[in-house]
């Protein structure tokens, strides 16, 4: 489930042919590694040889595959910090900009707890969103 490429990764290898290795007047470096605990580190930097300006960024990513969670932290040389928490395969959006979220946890065999939410994407600040809680017992 965690090995499925995202939409933005499709065709990435073909795009990299034109984006990597052709930095005229620029020195560029990209490094990626993964720790034994599953944290991915990627950093990139480039320096322009004619102006001497340099910039770079650092990104860490940690995935919890059982829950479909991904935590991403980003930091660049402009001192911009960013954090992103994404929850894969748990949201659905329809043509009316209604966003549905759902999560089901099996507490024990035959007992399930379900949390759900319906958010109006067009009128996000207006309120009127719905939240649900379900408790299911099987005999």
User: How many whole angstroms does the radius of gyration measure?
Assistant: 21 Å
Secondary structure class reads mainly beta
Strand content: over 45%
Largest sheet: 5 strands, antiparallel
**Secondary-structure element string:** HEEEEEEEEE
Overall form:
elongated
Residue ranges: pLDDT <50 for 5 or more in a row?
none
Question: What order do the strands of the largest sheet run in, or round the barrel if closed?
Answer: 1-2-3-4-5
Number of strands: 9
Mean pLDDT: 83
Quickly count the domains.
2
Question: Number of helical segments?
Answer: 1
Proportion of helical residues: under 10%
Q: Gap between N and C termini, in Å?
A: 30 Å
Keywords: Acetylation, Ion transport, Isopeptide bond, Membrane, Mitochondrion, Mitochondrion outer membrane, NAD, Nucleotide-binding, Phosphoprotein, Porin, Transmembrane, Transmembrane beta strand, Transport, Ubl conjugation
Protein name: Non-selective voltage-gated ion channel VDAC3
InterPro entries: Porin_dom_sf, Porin_Euk, Porin_Euk/Tom40
Family: Belongs to the eukaryotic mitochondrial porin family.
């Amino acid at each position: 489930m965690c090995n499925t490429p995202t939409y933005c990764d499709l065709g990435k290898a073909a795009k990299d042919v034109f984006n990597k290795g052709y930095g005229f007047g620029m020195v560029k470096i990209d490094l990626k590694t993964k720790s034994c605990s599953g944290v991915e580190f990627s950093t990139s930097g480039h320096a322009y040889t004619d102006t001497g300006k340099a910039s770079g960024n650092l990104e860490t990513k940690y995935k919890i595959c059982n829950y479909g969670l991904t935590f991403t932290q980003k930091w660049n040389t402009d001192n911009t910090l960013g954090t992103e928490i994404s929850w894969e395969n748990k949201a659905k959006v329809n043509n009316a900009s209604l966003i549905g979220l759902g999560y089901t946890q099996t507490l024990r065999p035959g007992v399930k707890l379900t949390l759900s939410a319906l958010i109006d994407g067009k009128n996000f600040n207006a309120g009127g969103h719905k939240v649900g809680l379900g408790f299911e017992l099987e005999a």
